[in-house]
Amino acid sequence: MNEVVGRDDLLLVTLDTLRFDVAAELAAEGRIPHLARHLPGGVWEKRHAPGSFTYASHQAMFAGFLPTPATQGPHPRLFAARFAGSETTAGRTFVFDTPDLVSALAGAGYRTVCIGGVGFFNKLGPLGSVLPGLFQESHWEPEFGVASPTSFEAQVRRAEQVVAALPADRRLFLFVNVPSLHQPNWFHLPGATRAAGDSRATHAAALEYVDRHIGRLFAAASSRRRCFAIVCSDHGTAYGDGGFTGHRLGHEAVWTVPYAHFFLEASA
Question: What's the pTM?
């Protein structure tokens, strides 16, 4: 990462609330072709989330604690704040001396941009302003939110505008929090109703919706130079698993998340 930072653009996409089992099934069944073509070996890596809900998980990720491989570690990290005694900081880790990765990348010359989705990024109050406040530039509007059936399309359009407006020689760290998987998601499955509510099937349909549009995001992110991309979930969610519904709770469906990182070669 010490070679990547300063050379390539960076993209972090959190597919908010996406369950690992659903993501893995859809990749295996060929239902998310645009994502799967970039996944190493065509499969998601199984990892453990650093938090059980959006705010906690993103605070950790922005401090360098991305989802952890679901095997015994220690596992060297891509990014880490300088911290005495860290067992996951290795020679290839990008080590920074700021409290968070976002400000570290800004200090390294990157334009840092947040395109928010769920409520913790809506800037409508103090709590919803904390995470986007880490960035030099942040965007949110109701069409980007969880209640919008076209949220991701709107976010992608904004990302294309952000990239187009940036000077060619300026490096970019683009973060996109995708809300489509989050409740409510029933409207992504044809024939589903508000009365019937969300389900594992509507959750899967939401991921298929994201897949239909993510190619445009990848193209924008790599339109100026090579881009290092991280695509992952921040936590999962339960749909009656073990009697649990939702997240911010300690269940396998919440703690286990899909993860991938890869290079997007320059398309310019």
Answer: 0.96
